[in-house]
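Researcher: Hi, I'm a grad student and pretty new to this. My advisor asked me to get structures for two proteins we've been looking at. I'm not sure of the right format, so I'll just paste the first sequence and hope you can take it from there.
Model: That works fine. Here's the first sequence with its structure tokens right after it:
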Amino acid sequence: MRLDRNFANGRFLEPAAGSADHELIAVYNPATEALIAHVTAASHADVIAAVDAAAVAQKAWRKLPSTERGAYLHKLADALTECAPDIGAALALESGKSVADATSEAVYAGQITRYHAEWARRIEGEVIPSDSPDENLVLHREPIGVVACLIPFNYPVYTFMRKVAPALIAGNTVVVRPSNNTPTSAFEIAKAVEKAGLPAGVVNILAMNHATAEALCTHPRIGMITLTGSVGAGRKVLEYCKENIAKPSLELGGKTPAIIEADADLERAARELVASKTTHCGQLCTAIERVYVHESVHDRFVALLKRHMSAVEFGDRSEQPSLMGPLVNEASRQSIHAMVERAIAAGATLETGGELPASAGRKGFFYPATLLSNCRQDMEIVQEETFGPVMPVVKYRTLDEALDMANDHQFGLSSVLYTENYRNAMKVANGIEAGELYVNRTPADPYQGFHAGWKRSGLGGDDGKHGMLEFTQTRLVVMKY
């Protein structure tokens, strides 16, 4: 059994489990429920030391020319690519992903690191006209300091570098708290950091329980907290930020609506929506969570969805990669199933799925691909995020009605429209209350875009120029001459 070690100030800390101020975090394979590793939870002293080391390192890191920081990130991108098989192997075990998908995620992490390395010569300020003829106003972009990065369980390798790479190129240092469900891949990333030769203290990675995570987030030297997680976790981070007026950047829940117009390519739309909903068992913040279908094609489209959803089989992807994998834990499975049962009781029609797998002889936190028709806008299954392979369908008469229902929601992260009518595409593009709209495709978060939510889906955002600028603050210099 593995015993993973925290990484701080340029070195791996020796496991100290069994002492009074350390505990072991057990990590399980969600496809088999087998115990695969123990991770030493950092102590309060470990966390304080890591933040202090990051603060010291940041003074020198920010003074490096940005091209030198970029060179380090290119080395890190190389190391992540070289270490991708080891990172992927760890991720597959702790997440239930196939080895191929997990390794690809590590490769993508290297790619987004390289993308942000290329911002080295593009971090620009502004020259602003003054009201006085003998004066210049110059706006500088500067690093914030030490950033706390809180990583989710669903895409923990990609999200790790999605946060860390832009933070580093902007001149910050980081203390990373991986999810306790998927921490072992983070320590494989630490090996890549070590291999790339980043200065000590620039990247620190520690597993934590809730108390030490709070100590991290409320440390007075933390200038920013970036989180991908639930709305509840986002509220906690906002409370932590109040302590020292730290900057929050939050990517929170989503309930992606997909609007299917009568002129859409129905076969393509059905195939792509089901693929979105069943990738990683629906545990994506941008997965299709509710489907609005024009009444003239409703029955035909539901039949297509049913055919594709019914064909999805689940199981251990280490044995058969084409299967849909497991949910993160039993609590998630029970919560999703309870939502499905309440939807049926409220009048929804179960088209396929919706039953807990027989427990005899089977391990793993699996749930079938589930399709519900005859849903209403006011149903819990339409209003609340399932974060699982459940797709509710609602019928509509006009595009205005569909747009109103898509916007009648607490979340506003991503959205989808299938149509061949450019006027309808422009209407939705200008009227949807979400940070993203994907027309005739499902969400994929391009590196150079900007992944940001409206409403309760978050504050700030990731990716592209604007995601990088999240990790900066401004200084205005007024020069009289």
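Researcher: Oh nice, that was easy. Here's the second one.
Model: And its structure:
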Amino acid sequence: MNRTMVTPFVCAMLVAGAAYGSPQSPDRAKADAVRRAVGAISPSLVTIETIGGAQPVVNAGPMGVFEESFKLAEGPTTGVVLSDDGLILTSSFNFARSPSVITVTLPNGTRASAKLLGRDLIQRIALIKVDVGTLKAAAWAKRSDIIVGQYAVACGRGLGSPEPHVSLGIVSALARRNGHAIQTDAKLSPVNYGGPLVDLDGRVLGLIVPMAGAGGALAGAEWYDSGIGFAIYRDSIDRVMDRLLAGQTIEPGKIGVMLGDDTDDEIPLLDTILKGGVVIRYVAKQSPAGTAGLQVGDRILAIDGQPIGDVADLQRRLSDRAAGDVVKLTYKRRWKIDELRLTLARMEDICCWPTRNRPAEPKPGEEPPSTQPSGD
């Protein structure tokens, strides 16, 4: 047999057949393999419950503040034990209400209060801590061992049953969302956000989170059970671990502009002739863009030396940049090309948008447009 054809599933079938002393049906072998994977990860899964807080909102800059279109209901969710001393990884989605109380139910049924240490609102991950003695940390797969097409099991403890609930799928794609996430077709939902996506050995491939191209704290949750889901790689989590341990909240970085297209009447005619990049339609006075002197009609050509093709391209390049990060913008004003550096800011720190010719507010049930590129 060709070595490349010996998949984890095939190996599981061979092992299962040997154990029973006779060939097994593929369905039986697959079910046994999934049960073994769940058994391996189960001691590292916890149930997370929260009390208090309010429905989160979206700060849409010049159009004001809107309630999230996805309604966050109260209910248990999932976490993964990261270290034996009580560090637990989960999704920031589970704390979007800013709850006053967080409790964790361990695999042995013990219930304990937990402290929220830090959150990364870009990767949608969070770190909490419980003081209950020794826990069993989950084993993680190396990124280099993960391949498209391998079986992936989404696990959670958000349904209140003593056994984890599972959903079987495959790894659909690698290095999504600027290289930080795995894509899977396993069914994902709010009850397993913060839980693990595991291989057939019970090793964690990634932490399950909701993701979307733009929006607020709940963006991406409306895709649940759609066959498009994401899980964050361990090395991407490690990249921000020191900041989470230090109690920081990592927020998306904003320039403080709204973007127009080349048919916009307010954009100078000479600039409409020039193609490439994206054109600024609005600039907030109190913002990185306003402080740096960017103007309506300026065309952003590149970020950190990488050319920008269109608005979606700009969104992708800025989607994982945090408030406090410094970016270099190359822009064109009339016929002159220049560069400047901006320190990205939180949306809450940006204000004083022009009131003339503001875009129409969204209708009830519609998502407000992003005021600055922030997604994939």
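Researcher: Is there anything I should tell my advisor about the second?
Model: You could mention this: Confidence is low (pLDDT under 50) at residues 1-22, 263-267, 359-376.
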